[in-house]
Amino acid sequence: MSLVQRTPSPVSESGLLQVQSEPDMVSAMRYEDEIETSNVSTRKKHPRLDGSPLDEYSRLIKDIQQMFKNWAAEQDLKFSKLITEISDLKQQNSVMQETNLEICKFMTFASSEYNGTRKKIAKLEKKRSEYTENLMKM
């Protein structure tokens, strides 16, 4: 309890004295607990046996936690492999797109050359047929 002297509580209208409580209840409770338990010894707990349900339960929890850790590590490994494989596929895809673009450019060029060559051949055949007609007329 507090060692500070206080003025007496005022008397209420009903004639009863009002009582005030300790302002710092936590420290007052601690002080009272220390006084009450100063001569009391603590009881020692018995050690758990290996076959007790709590021991088995805690072992089961640890096993499950370890299983989840192992599973998470496996998933991380698989995930990293997937990421590398996807990045490799993306790189192969970009190389293939570049190659396809080059092939398309070459096909456009070859097609235009082929068309030009066909026109030249058609002109040459026409001239040959004209020359052949002129030769026949002679």
Q: Report the structural category.
A: mainly alpha
Question: How much helicity do the residues have?
Answer: over 70%
SSE ordering:
HH
Q: Name the assembly state.
A: single chain
Description:
The N and C termini lie far apart (147 Å). With 138 residues, the protein is an all-alpha fold. 71% of the residues lie in helices and 0% in strands.
List keywords for this structure.
71% helix; mainly alpha; 138 residues
Write a short abstract of this structure.
This protein has helices at 25-37, 53-137. By secondary structure, the chain is mostly helical. Residues 1-23 are annotated as: Disordered.
Question: What does the secondary structure layout of this molecule look like, with pairings?
Answer:
Elements (H helix, E strand, L loop, with lengths): L24 H13 L15 H85 L1
